[in-house]
Amino acid sequence: MGRSIIGRFNVVPQLLLRMQSGKAVRLRDFAAQQKLGRTSFDVKLQDDGLVHPIPPSTTEFVRPNGMSLRPPGGNFQETLETFQKPPIIFRLVEGTPLPAHFTLLHEHTDHFSLQTTEPVSITELNKRMTVFLSQFQIITTQDYIREFGL
């Protein structure tokens, strides 16, 4: 039995952060990652080549299916400390409404995932997520340390 999904949201429920190497979102597909000998991934394309939403009736966390977000804290800091390049950090503001094509799942612990609500290509999903993130403030690692400590 997997872990229960804690919640589903159509607004950002609290301050959440997204760390990545550039301004454009580049979700990692399971099959492509496996070919490279890597185990971490963000989405798994279905037989039609699209990313499909997790059905609203799903109550258990099964696998990654979107863009990872976390609040400031220990888990975020651990990832920040091991990030390969100096990342940029998007600061998602509490109360921000999500576009209809997104939902936000609180999957487990302090891990949230921005996911599609409709079948979509990974290219289109990356574009939509990049546009969504572009409205938020970008902070550096130094900004994070100043505000939240390490």
Question: Can you describe what's shown?
Answer:
23% of the residues lie in helices and 21% in strands. With 150 residues, the chain is an alpha+beta fold. The chain has one domain. The strands form two sheets. It has a four-stranded antiparallel beta sheet, with no helix packed on it. It has a three-stranded antiparallel beta sheet with strand order 2-4-7. The model has no long low-confidence stretch (mean pLDDT 94). Residues 16-143 form the Tse2 ADP-ribosyltransferase toxin domain. This is Conserved uncharacterized mitochondrial protein. InterPro entries: ADPRTs_Tse2.
DSSP strand tally: 7
Largest β-sheet summary: 4 strands, antiparallel
The side-by-side strand order for the widest beta sheet comes to 1-5-6-3
Structural class: alpha+beta
Average of pLDDT = 94
Terminal Cα span: 34 Å
**Element order: H for helix, E for strand:** EEHEHEEEHEH
How many helical elements? 4
Beta strand % = 15-25%
Q: How many domains, in number, for the residues? A: 1
In the predicted model, the low-confidence regions spanning at least 5 consecutive residues are none
Percent of residues in helices: 10-25%
Shape: globular
Radius of gyration: 15 Å
Name a few traits of the molecule.
single chain; about 150 residues; alpha+beta; 4-stranded antiparallel beta sheet; 3-stranded antiparallel beta sheet; 4 helices; ADPRTs_Tse2; Conserved uncharacterized mitochondrial protein
